[in-house]
Amino acid sequence: MKIIKDISLIDINESKKLYDEAFNDPESYREKLYNTYLKNAKFFGVVNEENKLVMQTFFVPKRIVYQEMKMSGYLIFAVSVKKEYQNQGLMKKYLNDFIEDMKFYGDMIFIQAYNYDVYKSFDFLQCTSKKNWFLRKDQFLKVDNINEKIDFDLINKININFLKMNDIGNFTYKTEKENKKYLKLYYECGCEIKMSNKSYVVYDKEKNEIIEYGYLDLRDFIKLMSSFPFDTTITSILDFDKRFFTIKKEEYTFAKALKNKIFDGTEHIYFMDNW
């Protein structure tokens, strides 16, 4: 087995095929990831004796704030092992090596996973969490505020002011250019964007979930939410007013960080970038 640290040294189609085996995402979504999100990521791969890719992962750069200090970090993304090489200790052996390498480049290393049990042998601690909410059925309002066209500049203004109103602009603010990039990526990958002059939401149709939102007026936002099925989930780091919204799922782990001398798990880490 040999470690490869430059994606240009392998057949990119092998990498995409391995990604597809592990995650089964739509091809259009995967292509967007490779062409945008993963473009500046650090690649680590493992090839066998026949020089075929059997394991890979990406370390995506992240800007973060912890204890009111801006830091740099990397998110471990798309860890994948070829099926015939699974359950052989490959991931534990090589992911440890990759992490040790990456400690020289950033202050912190993160992971997001559907199943954290896979990584229980690694020393990760919860660093940020979210809750799932939905609009109470008796609070639905007449929908009369939806704009026909998507105005990304207006969404940016709503987003920036929403963050300031909630005193979270210091750690989640993205530049207008970055915010447009993320919104357009969501849109091109099949998410629906709805907006008014005072609110916006990004809706994942497959999950029936609002994955990003912002509003300047709560009643206006409730009108926008009333255009979706009553069981639509809103994923949020913020709490909603329980007069209008109900918790669907209590606090759950959104991301974990590698335990080190900087992070001991006692305070949340805040991401300045999405994903």
Note down, in words, how this protein is organized.
27% of the residues lie in helices and 32% in strands. The chain has 275 residues and is of the alpha+beta class. It has helices spanning 12-23, 27-37, 90-102, 152-165, 169-172, 176-188, 218-225, and strands at residues 2-4, 42-47, 53-66, 69-81, 108-111, 124-135, 192-195, 199-204, 209-215, 233-236, 245-258, 270-271. Strands 1, 2, 3, 4, 5, 6, 7, 8, 9, 10, 11 and 12 form a twelve-stranded mixed sheet that branches. It is globular.
Structure described in brief:
Helix content is 27%, strand content 32%.
- SSE-based structural type: alpha+beta
Radius of gyration: 20 Å
How far the N terminus sits from the C terminus, by CA atoms, comes to: 31 Å
- Number of DSSP strands? 12
Overall pLDDT level: 87
Coarse shape: globular
User: In percent terms, what proportion of residues is strand?
Assistant: 25-35%
Total helix count?
7
What is the N-to-C succession of helices and strands? EHHEEEHEEHHHEEEHEEE
Helical coverage, percent range: 25-40%
Low-confidence stretches: 169-173
The biggest beta sheet reads:
12 strands, mixed
Question: What structural keywords apply?
Answer:
275 residues; alpha+beta; twelve-stranded mixed sheet; 7 helices; globular
Task: Detail the topology: elements first, then pairings.
Elements: E1 2-4, H1 12-23, H2 27-37, E2 42-47, E3 53-66, E4 69-81, H3 90-102, E5 108-111, E6 124-135, H4 152-165, H5 169-172, H6 176-188, E7 192-195, E8 199-204, E9 209-215, H7 218-225, E10 233-236, E11 245-258, E12 270-271
Parallel strand pairs: 4-5, 9-10
Antiparallel strand pairs: 1-2, 2-3, 3-4, 3-12, 5-11, 6-10, 6-11, 7-8, 8-9
